[in-house]
Amino acid sequence: MVQLSHLQRANAAGARPWLFHPHSPADGSRAFRSGAGADGRHNFEGFCGRGATVKTFDRTLYLAKLCIDARHPEWWQIHFVGDGFLRKMVRNLVGTAADIALGRRPLSCVADALATRDRSKAGPTAPAAGLTMEAVFYDESALKTQLEILRALPDDRVAPLFDCF
């Protein structure tokens, strides 16, 4: 099991190079609602980058959680916890959420990309800047503990990386 986080800063002047920022005001609540159907076991072929050499596109996403800092709504932190990730899967999920938040795509595009397994139904690939692998879990009890901690994180603050360990 792997936990990844993607930290992005929307519309940020002078943002650091390790942050992804779409350069436009974004509606985080739309992005939050878009990820609601992504958790669970799915065929994520519609979010897989080209060149993947895998036997199956089936993956389980235990958690996809968006936190938006109430004091600085341009700061987002998206946590993904799953049993494995495909090539560019997280970047494609983040790019899709950003497009939804910017009003470029409908809320249904996540469900459409999952149902049709069609990459063109999802949003663009977000830059790798801001993507961090936080942990790998080999013990199921450690995974369950971490999921509880992440689920308990308030949605209105962005935690410093690794703060929740």
Question: Can you describe this structure?
Answer:
This protein is an alpha+beta fold. The protein has helices at residues 28-34, 89-101, 109-116, 140-152, and strands at residues 2-9, 40-43, 58-68, 75-82, 131-136. A hairpin with a 6-residue loop joins strand 3 (58-68) and strand 4. Helix 1 crosses helix 2. The two termini are 15 Å apart. Residues 8-18 and 161-165 have low confidence and may be disordered.
Put the structure in a nutshell.
With 165 residues, this protein is α+β, with helices and mostly antiparallel strands.
Main pleated sheet: 5 strands, antiparallel
User: What is the distance, rounded to the nearest whole angstrom, between the alpha carbons of the first and last residues?
Assistant: 15 Å
Q: Point out poorly predicted stretches.
A: 8-18, 161-165
Mean pLDDT rating:
78
CA radius of gyration is 15 Å
The secondary-structure class comes to alpha+beta
By oligomeric state, this entry counts as single chain
What percentage of the residues does DSSP assign to strands (E)? 15-25%
Apparent shape? globular
Q: What are the secondary-structure elements, in order, as H or E?
A: EHEEEHHEH
Order of neighbouring strands in the sheet with most strands: 2-3-4-1-5
Number of strands: 5
Helix content: 10-25%
The total count of helices amounts to: 4
